[in-house]
Specification:
The protein is an alpha+beta fold. The chain contains five helices and seven strands. The longest helix has 15 residues, at about 75-90.
Length: about 140
């Protein structure tokens, strides 16, 4: 697939619909969070999204999803690469994530399994870490 342009600030309603279709958490996402979400496709009907939340030098990658009919074409990889670039531009040095289904995908992209106990306090305090994601979720990190 040719590289599609990746944009910031998708429509929040469209993001929530895409996340809900993939059974990903949405309850903690406000309008301001959309400023650090990236999307492929139109703003009102994205075919892929990913978000980054910032806590000083630490970042939380969240909500990576690509519409089922557009999977296996490299969009997820492109979104993650651009999200990591965005995190570096914002001076993050480490990016973290929780996943129940995509551990192998992220391990193949240089992420490492991390102990939940080693998570920085700001990451542990996020709604995702504190309860939105199940305790069985893999916790991964990557130095940027």
């Amino acid at each position: 697939m040719n590289a599609l342009p990746i944009h910031f600030a998708p429509d929040r309603t469209a993001v929530l619909q895409l996340l809900e279709s993939a059974s990903l958490p949405t309850s903690d996402l406000g309008e301001a969070d959309m400023n650090d979400f990236l999307h492929v496709g139109s703003r009102d009907a994205p075919i892929g999204i990913v978000g980054v939340q910032f806590f000083g030098a630490d970042a939380l990658l969240r909500s990576l999803v690509v519409n089922e009919e557009h999977r296996a074409h490299g969009l997820g990889r492109l979104l993650v690469e651009r999200a990591e670039q965005h995190a570096r531009e914002r001076a993050a040095t480490t990016i973290y994530l929780l996943t129940t289904t995509a551990e192998a995908f992220f391990l193949a992209r240089g992420y490492n399994v991390a102990s939940r106990d080693s998570a920085p306090a700001a990451i542990r305090a996020t709604p995702e870490f504190a309860g939105l994601c199940p305790a069985s979720s893999a916790f991964l990190s990557k130095r940027l």
